Amino acid sequence: MNIMDFNVKKLAADAGTFLSRAVQFTEEKLGQAEKTELDAHLENLLSKAECTKIWTEKIMKQTEVLLQPNPNARIEEFVYEKLDRKAPSRINNPELLGQYMIDAGTEFGPGTAYGNALIKCGETQKRIGTADRELIQTSALNFLTPLRNFIEGDYKTIAKERKLLQNKRLDLDAAKTRLKKAKAAETRNSQLNSARLEGDNIMIWAEEVTKSEQELRITQSEFDRQAEITRLLLEGISSTHAHHLRCLNDFVEAQMTYYAQCYQYMLDLQKQLGR
Questions:
Q1: How many CA atoms lie less than 13 Å away from 68 in the CB half-sphere?
Q2: Residue-wise pLDDT tens digits, 68-121
Q3: How far apart are CA 78 and CA 72, in angstroms?
Q4: Contacts 24+ apart (CB under 8 A), 67-70
Q5: What angle do CA 135, 137, 139 make, to 5 degrees?
């Protein structure tokens, strides 16, 4: 057998499998075929994984909005990330405000009360800008990156294996349907008068039953194996929750440090202005 013959036969086999799955899926939707239900434990694990994925995406996206309210800046950072390049550093809002205050105070005159106060406020705003930058960097590394790794890594693997499980389940139920039909045909033929042609039909259907039973055993084994693979992956969701909990604690600590720094900066500024 040459490579071309092998490829043609494989293509035909794949097309047959796809058609069989499509027919089984359609008949299930129309209520014309039985469907093998997954066990309750596996169904619960699948629901837990889907729920984890949905809420992780929402939390991740809203955290990005919190840390970087500018949508254009978020898009730019996303593009650079996909290109595996570092986004250019840009001055943030507190730093820009601080620079404006310092420039205004310098022009009004550092020796004037207003000019001196503007310069002091500007310096404080720039410190807050630095703290803001550190919060973003720490949160991105310790909180957002692990969440994104789950969505783009672990969950994609789970989704792939879940799809394979769905296909194996369709193959199993299609095999059950073929066996059921073969047995029904064999029974009908055996009830007819034992004429020569009918006897041939009985033998044909008996062979079909044997073939269908063998196919059912194979598809059942493949389905059981894929169900076990999917279950083992899904049971890792509990470890994912534990890991994300540690990341959440890191995020809270980063926010606590940021707000404590900002409070101290403003307290010091208030004292300076009071003098």
A1: 21
A2: 887 766 666 655 565 566 667 788 999 999 999 999 999 999 999 999 999 999
A3: 10
A4: 67/135, 67/136, 67/139, 67/140, 68/136
A5: 65
Amino acid sitting at position 143: F
Residue range 223-252, pLDDT digits in tens: 999 999 999 999 999 999 999 999 999 999
Tokens describing residue 159:
């989704």
pLDDT tens, residue by residue, 137-172: 999 999 999 999 999 999 999 999 999 999 999 999
Residue with tokens 């630095």: 130
Is residue 225 within 8 A of residue 169, CB to CB? The reply is: no
Return the residue matching tokens 């890991």: 243
C-alpha to C-alpha distance for 122 and 180, rounded to whole angstroms: 81
Tokens read off for 250: 């890191």
Tell me how far apart the alpha carbons of residues 16 and 215 are, in angstroms, rounded to a whole number: 14
d(CA 194, CA 200): 9
Query: 182 exposed, middle or buried (CB, 10 Å; 0-12, 13-18, 19+)?
Result: buried
Spatial CA neighbour of 177 closest among 2, 36, 6: 36
Tell me the CA distances in angstroms from 33 to 25, 26, 165, 220, one per residue in order: 9, 9, 18, 17
Q: What share of the chain is helix, strand, coil (3-state, %, to 5)?
A: 85, 0, 15
pTM: 0.80
Fill in the amino acid letter for 216.
Answer: L
